[in-house]
Write a structure and sequence with these properties.
elongated; Ribosomal_biogenesis_FAF1-like; coiled coil; Protein FAF1
Length: 345
């Protein structure tokens, strides 16, 4: 009998612990039935209640048999045991009532992914499409096609703009190279007084003056200026292709005549540089031995007879100092003495 009572007490304690755990879970997450699952703990509680009733009835029968054999004191003990069983049943009913109340007071589940409750009335355009039997997919496809067309048009415009800018850059570079030549052969009386150099011609063109007064386009350049510009462009192309030797060939002229022409041309260049220095004009640098290109260079076409530089000075510029044999020595020889690195110490 003592062992049966102990087992029943352990079962009731275990069931109470399960019930408390279930109530705590439902208070935080809600009941399993509301989530769509089957609550099997309720079946266990019902089965445990029936088993507890059967065990209690067996205990009462045994107690009645013992009461017939024992004294009235044992009758008092059986009455106290029955009172304890009734109290435990009352506690179990209270726990079940609390659990039912907790289930009714469970948390409210809110779904954010559900459809919106607000009704949006269709627009007039949508109504017309629906009445005509067309779906909204046609309009979406048309909008996408129009956007693609706009993108393609913008790409074509950008490509055309890049080509135009490239063409303008090429024309500007040619104009800068040929500005001195054009100013030398400028025969317009209206601009001869105002334009005295290629720089003035370039600035006048960049400031946006009338294009009729400035001859820098191919269809506006005529006569010797046109021939010289074309020759200059051809010479530039041939130099790029590696045929500079054929270009640098000079016309056959007697030696004393060529020396006199070089001397006279150098005097003109010195006079031009002196006038520029007195007038505060900064001229571009020229390589050592080369002739500065001035107005007489283009007008008299003197480069065909004397060349672009003095040959002797070109040789001096191109020659390199012989450094001798490459021998592994200690340190580095300078004008201040022998310099030895720290790693050699």
């Amino acid at each position: 009998m003592g062992s049966n009572n102990n087992n029943s007490d352990e079962d009731t304690e275990y069931l109470k612990a399960l019930e408390a755990q279930r109530l705590a879970f439902e208070s935080q997450f809600g009941s399993l039935e509301s989530m769509g699952f089957e609550d099997k703990t309720k079946d266990i509680t019902v089965g445990s209640d029936s088993s507890s009733h059967n065990s209690d009835s067996d205990i009462n029968d045994n107690n009645n048999d013992d009461d017939e054999e024992e004294d009235s004191e044992n009758d008092g003990d059986s009455d106290s045991d029955s009172d304890i069983d009734v109290g435990s049943r009352d506690n179990e009913t209270k726990v079940t009532e609390k659990s039912s109340s907790m289930i009714t007071r469970g948390p409210k589940v809110i779904t954010f992914n559900g459809p919106a409750d607000d009704f949006i009335a269709p627009s007039k355009k949508d109504k017309k499409l629906l009445s005509s039997g067309k779906s909204l997919i046609h309009t979406i496809i048309k909008e996408q096609e129009s956007e693609e067309r706009e993108m393609n048009d913008n790409k074509n415009d950008n490509e055309n703009l890049e080509e135009e800018n490239l063409q303008n850059d090429i024309e500007l570079q040619q104009f800068l190279k040929e500005s001195h030549l054009l100013s030398a052969f400028n025969n317009n009386n209206s601009t001869s007084s105002s334009i005295t150099s290629g720089v003035a011609l370039t600035l006048q063109g960049m400031n946006g003056s009338k294009s009729d007064s400035i001859a820098y386009q191919d269809d506006q350049v005529m006569g010797k200026a046109r021939a010289r510009t074309l020759e200059m462009r051809l010479n530039g192309l041939s130099k790029i292709n590696g045929h500079s030797k054929n270009i640098d060939k000079l016309e056959k002229v007697p030696m004393h005549v060529r020396k006199g022409m070089i001397k006279k041309h150098v005097e003109r260049i010195q006079r031009y540089e002196k006038d520029a220095a007195e007038g505060g004009i900064v001229l571009s640098k020229v390589k050592k031995g080369q002739f500065r290109k001035i107005e007489s260079t283009y007008k008299k076409d003197i480069e065909r007879r004397i060349g672009q530089s003095i040959k002797r000075k070109d040789i001096e510029r191109n020659t390199r100092r012989e450094r001798g044999l490459k021998i592994n020595t200690i340190g580095r020889s300078t004008r201040n003495g022998l310099v030895v690195s720290k790693s050699r110490h």
